[in-house]
Specification:
The chain is mostly helical. It has one domain. Helix 1 packs antiparallel against helix 2 and helix 2 runs antiparallel to helix 3. The termini are far apart.
Length: 106
C-alpha cells in the first residue's frame, strides 16, 4: 500500500516536470530551447516507464523499452542539434545578438 502511493507520487512529480519541459518546447524563443524542451521530456519518460513497469510488475519488459527510448531520444537530439547548427544556426533568435562582433568570421 505504501509503495503504491510512493510510486504514484513519483509518477505525478515526473509528469509535472514533463509539463515544464513541454512549456519550454512549445514556447521557447529559440530553436535551442525547443530542442532542450523535447530532450527534457524524453529524459523524464525513461524513469516514468520504469516506474510504470514496477507498478504493473513488468519491469523486465519496460526497462528494455525505456533503455531503447533513451537511446533514440539521445540520437534524435544530436541529429536535431546538428541539423540546426548546420542549416539555420542553433542560437539564432528574432532579436540581434548583444555581443559585439570581433571580426573573426566572414
Amino acid at each position: 500500500m505504501f509503495t503504491e502511493t510512493l510510486f504514484n507520487a513519483a509518477a505525478i512529480c515526473i509528469a509535472m516536470a514533463m509539463a515544464a519541459g513541454l512549456y519550454r518546447a512549445v514556447r521557447g524563443p529559440s530553436s535551442l530551447d525547443h530542442i532542450l524542451g523535447v530532450n527534457a521530456i524524453g529524459s523524464k519518460t525513461t524513469p516514468l516507464l520504469v516506474i510504470i513497469g514496477v507498478m504493473y510488475q513488468r519491469v523486465d519488459m519496460l526497462v528494455d523499452i525505456a533503455l531503447a527510448y533513451a537511446m533514440l531520444n539521445f540520437i534524435a537530439v544530436l541529429a536535431a542539434s546538428r541539423y540546426f547548427q548546420k542549416r539555420r544556426g542553433l542560437h539564432e533568435d528574432s532579436t540581434p545578438s548583444q555581443t559585439p562582433d570581433k571580426g573573426y568570421g566572414p
